Amino acid sequence: MRILPLSLLLLLGFISIVSHADANDKIKAELQKQLGSTAQIKTISPAPIPGLFEVVINNTVVYTDASAKYLIQGSIVELKTGANLTELKEDELNKIKFTDLPMKDALRTVRGDGTRVIAVFADPNCGYCKTLEKNLLTMDNITIFTYLIPILSADSTAKSKAIWCSADPSKTWINWMVQQVPPTAAKPDCANPLDRNLALAKKIGVTGTPAIFFSDGTRIPGAVSKETIEKKFADLTVKK
């Protein structure tokens, strides 16, 4: 068996890296031309399926071919393990460090022993947020940090300020979201964290409400059911 010199092996490896980089640059340029400047293409790498490339755009995973002629949206599932590889990659991309969240800027609601913790980004005029709040109301032994992010309208800003500046912000929030009791500010001009919350939401990629974050940094978007949240808490317990 002929053994190639180390210098030649290193050269071949370098050529391979350069060729992959060139291919990725060509794919990126073609995709950017077709998708426009608003599409933030972060990375391009070989996909689990030969001939396809994994493209991360605005923290969303899509796939394309070597000529960037096609864009494939959907999940790649490994049949042997049942793992949704696309979902796993997006979860990793969207992960945050939960302990970095500024808890002082959130409404704090505690039920039972409060041992299970989540953070929720919500708008007071968001219908899905109201559905989620009703689901959370049925859960025990939970601490909920709610970050008010008024993104739907000027009225959302007014309501968020009234809720934050009320005598009991957490209670006022729940009364509004669940029972439609209009919020009343005890101190109309009190300092509030709304601008900081909006900046934080943008930083961690929250583009819609509600968005739920768990203690491991993973997120679930939308008005998910109590059962979905309970399952996630159970999975976190198993991982410990």
From TrEMBL:
GO terms for cellular component: periplasmic space. The keyword Transmembrane does not apply. The keyword Signal applies. It is found in: Periplasm. Residues 1-21 form the signal peptide. Keywords: Disulfide bond, Periplasm, Redox-active center, Signal. Residues 20-87 form the Disulphide bond isomerase DsbC/G N-terminal domain. InterPro entries: DiS-bond_Isoase_DsbC/G, DiS-bond_isomerase_DsbC/G_N, DiS-bond_isomerase_DsbC/G_N_sf, Thiol:disulfide_interchange, Thioredoxin-like_fold, Thioredoxin-like_sf. Residues 111-231 form the Thioredoxin-like fold domain. Required for disulfide bond formation in some periplasmic proteins. Acts by transferring its disulfide bond to other proteins and is reduced in the process. Belongs to the thioredoxin family. DsbC subfamily. PANTHER family: THIOL:DISULFIDE INTERCHANGE PROTEIN DSBC (PTHR35272:SF3), THIOL:DISULFIDE INTERCHANGE PROTEIN DSBC-RELATED (PTHR35272). This is Thiol:disulfide interchange protein. It comes from Polynucleobacter kasalickyi. The lineage of its organism: Bacteria, Pseudomonadati, Pseudomonadota, Betaproteobacteria, Burkholderiales.
